[in-house]
Amino acid sequence: MNSELNNIPHKRYNILTGEWILVSPHRTKRPWQGKTEENKSHKKETYDPSCYLCPGNTRASGETNPDYKEPYSFINDFSSLLPDSPEINFQEGLLKAESERGICKVVCFSPDHSHTLPLMEVEDITRVVQTWKKEYLELGAEEDINYVQIFENKGAIMGCSNPHPHGQIWSQSSIPTEILKKSSKFREYWEQHKKSILSDYLEQELEAGERILDENEHFVSLIPYWAVWPFEAMIIPKRHLQHIGQLNEAEEEAYAEIIKKLTIKYDNLFETFFPYSSGIHQIPTDGKDYPEWHFHMSFYPPLLRSATVKKFMVGYEMFAGPQRDITAEQAAARLNDLSPIHYSLQ
Length: 346
Ligand SMILES: [Zn+2]
What we know:
The protein is α+β, with helices and mostly antiparallel strands. 24% of the residues lie in helices and 20% in strands. It has one domain: 2-Layer Sandwich (HIT family, subunit A). The chain has helices at residues 122-140, 177-193, 197-208, 249-270, 316-319, 328-336; strands at residues 10-13, 20-23, 72-75, 89-92, 95-98, 102-108, 147-154, 166-172, 212-215, 219-222, 233-237, 276-281, 296-300, 323-324. The strands form three sheets. It has a nine-stranded antiparallel β-sheet with strand order 3-6-8-7-12-13-11-10-9, with helices on both faces. The radius of gyration is 21 Å and the shape is globular. It starts with 9 loop residues before the first strand and ends in a 10-residue tail after the last helix. The chain binds zinc ion (ZN). Pathway: Carbohydrate metabolism; galactose metabolism.
């Protein structure tokens, strides 16, 4: 990389969205003040009688969870989208609205209330990957469902009130904005080069090495060059796959393994249960071909300098565009310096 960029304000281009991010590395000349939380034990009960996600408990809807032993998914009792909304197309002068149909589900990753992805065994995370895959294929096959968003909000700071390990899946009739942006960039590159832009990007990143976090036979995790969040990361399959439904058995396990390793590093950074929003971007399920698409998973963690200092998207970022202080290379170096063993087990 051009090393001058480490010292001067500059902007970086996101090849997947076509947007720019402002980087101000000269503001981080002060020494790293990372601090850790006082309470390191985080000992939690494996079962919480008041948790609506624990096996055997009754939810607000009155339904009772089965005594599940593996990942368990169900329709969200407070779904943001409904499958049977009436079709409405409203336009009055400059006011425009359309109805949106969808199905929202919750996926419990484990029956164990005290678990989180970094503390789960690779084979148990593999079962979560298999559940995501099944849900993507099943929901995507529904006539009215043209896009399936799999995501996890982890930690109270990300608006997640229940510590039971779980994620969500929102599936809907229209294709959302972020996917439309990425589709157009994937297509643009495909038409010019007949290759996936992420395959070429991965090749360049593996050669450079400075933003790589981890690599196994089938997946790579890295801090993207254009990262917005301080420790934002991406997991990319080496094979040019359009969606997780195409993963073979070995890839499912390799995917689970790289998720575990990344989330352990995250927890070790501030010795806390590191909050983030993570999500999988893959092709729409509208029955069309998207050969240009390359599925990937992104992690957007809000923490900046400690377990309590959060990055805020305010001021310039609200009005102009995203900005960061530590560079993607510095973030990768910090994570790479940490132990691969979870701090609670050391
Ligand atoms: Zn629970």
